[in-house]
Design goal:
single chain, 69% helix, 197 residues, mainly alpha
């Protein structure tokens, strides 16, 4: 930003205040689950035992941590190799994804931002624990959903912003956008791609 005052206000408001508040809100489901399990005065009856929703939340959480780790490692390996090839001074080595400048293989051929998608689902699945703590699920919403909803909204804006930057930087990214969805995989397309291999 060219305006130092605007940059300072952005850092103070968004980075210093909003992001810390968001971090507090995304862990709020653990407070709700703990309160239900330990308070004698809790209005909602709570489940003392693990239930199917606990299992679904746990498996989803772990699967998304795995997906995010794989995506981050693939991106790191791609960028490391891309810059290694660039530093050789031989432009002929920059072919395929390396020539385009961005990773389109591995998990990145299924969705454009697998790490963003997994991070969002990690916190949505974490929210499920607050629902699982209820003995009878009276509602699928409680106040602790605010954190995961705000985080998903933040990722929508961040995803749009990074897409805009990437399209300006890499001309062939527009073709990639047409072929590969942003966050949610197209199951039929992916099944057909796997059958072709």
């Amino acid at each position: 930003m060219a305006n130092p005052l605007a940059w300072t206000l952005f850092n103070f408001g968004f980075v210093s205040i909003y992001q810390n508040l968001l971090l507090l809100l995304i862990v709020a489901p653990s407070f709700v689950a703990y309160t239900m399990a330990t308070s004698e005065n809790c209005i909602i009856t709570y489940a003392r035992d693990l239930n199917i929703l606990d299992v679904i939340a746990t498996l989803t959480f772990l699967a998304c941590v795995l997906i995010e780790s794989v995506a981050d490692n693939q991106q790191f390996a791609f960028q490391t190799e891309k810059y290694r090839l660039r530093n050789t001074g031989n432009a002929e080595l920059l072919v395929g994804d390396y020539g385009d400048g961005f990773c389109q293989s591995g998990i990145f051929r299924i969705v454009r931002k697998p790490n963003y998608a997994a991070e969002q689902m990690i916190w949505v699945s974490f929210f499920l624990f607050s629902i699982a703590a209820q003995k009878e699920v009276a509602s699928i919403w409680n106040w602790s959903a605010i954190g995961s909803v705000l985080l998903v909204l933040l990722f929508q804006g961040s995803g749009w912003f990074t897409e805009k930057i990437t399209m300006a930087k890499y001309p062939s990214y527009k073709d990639y956008v047409k072929r590969v969805p942003l966050y949610i995989p197209s199951m039929l397309d992916n099944w057909l791609k796997l059958k072709q291999e």
